[in-house]
Fold this protein.
Amino acid sequence: MDSADGDGKIDMKRKWNWPIWVGFVVALGGLFSYGFFVRYPLTRDFPWANLLLFGIGAALLIFGLFRAFGRPQLYRGKIFGPVLAAIGLFFFAFFSYEIFYVVRQVPLSAHAPRLNRHRTSCCWIKTRCRWVWAICFPDQKLSC
Amino acid sequence: MRSFRQKLSEFDARGIRVVGISVDPPDINRRQSQKLGYTFPLLSDPKAEVIRRYDVLHPRAGPKGADIARPAEFLIDSSRIVRWVNLTENISVRARPEQVLSAFKQIEPAEQ
């Protein structure tokens, strides 16, 4: 806060509320970094790295919102804070929907060959100018 | 597939032949193999004939509603019997090469 000028007005300069912006960017990273983390089984099978990023982003956003609404005379963010938090929440909802619902919509494959119960017939096929034994068709159910 | 490529020498050492199959046409599979450095055959089944016989078709799940194959892994022994199957319930959770090698290790005595 600057001292009063000649007109008696107080010139208040509020600070940049960085946790809101950094939190939003981290949440954005949580959404788009799955393309990178999917390369590694540890972070692909369960997206804990992405969830961690979303968690850090949420914590920063909440901290930033508390600053914006708790001390508005010092920090900015009463308008863009909730907007960015809502967008971040939408990112998280979209990510959760994709990762915990869409990717699990796999057909049952009830008639897929089962363990020790199907014999296959295999045929030779040609790939890149050489013959390889490659394709085996499930054609016979073994008697148990 | 990438992890299978990385462990290919271990599969070769055990006499296991790794083969991938997809609905993509040969030129796309060839490009994909070159791009990702696959040295095992990546076969094309554009009409999903083999994929259907394995009942691993995922209807309308591909680009523009095209049929694709759902992720699945099969280990077939030299007497052509299916000895290990992995039908994932989550597209992003695939079989790891270690799982296949472990399954092979368990059936290996029967193989010899």
